Amino acid sequence: MKEITAKVNTVELINKDVYQITLQVDDLEFFAGQYLMVVLPTGEQVPYSIGSTPHELPNITLYVLVSDAASLASKVVEYIKSNASITIKAPGGDCHIHNGVLDSNPEHILLIAGGTGFSQIKSLYCDLVEQNFTGKVSFYWGLRTAEDVFAKDWLEEAHKYSPFSLDVIVNEQSDQWHGRSGWLYEAILADNPDLNQSVAFISGSVGMVYGTLDQLELKGLSIDRCFSDVFAYAPHPDKPVL
């Protein structure tokens, strides 16, 4: 990863606790699905998936969840808001479609996101669209409540113009939500009961990634055909002995 100066274009609160940040970088190459590190003045380096695609360069997009005013994410957003330019390190990560996965001619690519894991999966999804990929691709995005949904304009455009399927699943039912609800893995398995010939990219919290993977493995998804940044820094928790 190399150190790069990025110009701050916009910092926008797009729902109750998610910020969309756009930066301009003039010296960056990356694969869709990779991440960058925001370098704070304290020396802390905070990773965020790049939520845009290489063809959108020199502009890049980040989605940052700030659930607590005292959190590190809040410190990152305040730092970016108060500076015309920031230092980043990029690119990082091997969870991308140029890692050889397409060489196996997968029957189906599952793109699975929880919360702001959306950022990485959106980048992969849009890059496959940009490449005019002709295989079967399904994007599943899980959130806790209807209020947690963001990037609604992008969702509307993607539903209209993308050749791939896109489903948003909200865990908690409410009068404000008229789409699919329940557990994310349940929606995936309802649509895809046999995953033997599928590959999956999963982005979200450690618990979300491994919890989803465990369920999908039961229906044939091979761990060797599943990719997540989580694998690089968080080993799989021990499964209970039955």
UniProtKB/TrEMBL annotation:
SUPFAM superfamilies reported for this sequence: Ferredoxin reductase-like, C-terminal NADP-linked domain, Riboflavin synthase domain-like
A GO term, aspect molecular function: oxidoreductase activity
Domain called FAD-binding FR-type: residue spans: 1-98
Keyword entries, A-Z: Luminescence, Oxidoreductase
Matches recorded under CDD domains: flavin_oxioreductase
Matching InterPro entries: FAD-bd_FR_type (IPR017927), FNR_nucleotide-bd (IPR039261), MRET (IPR050415), OxRdtase_FAD/NAD-bd (IPR001433), Riboflavin_synthase-like_b-brl (IPR017938)
Keyword Oxidoreductase: yes
UniProt keyword annotation of Calcium present: no
GO terms (BP aspect): bioluminescence
Name of one Pfam family that matches: NAD_binding_1
PANTHER family named among the record's database cross-references: NAD(P)H-FLAVIN REDUCTASE, NADH OXIDOREDUCTASE HCR
Family to which the UniProt record says this protein belongs: Belongs to the Fre/LuxG FAD/NAD(P) flavoprotein oxidoreductase family.
Record-given protein name: NAD(P)H-flavin reductase
Organism listed in the record: Marinomonas primoryensis
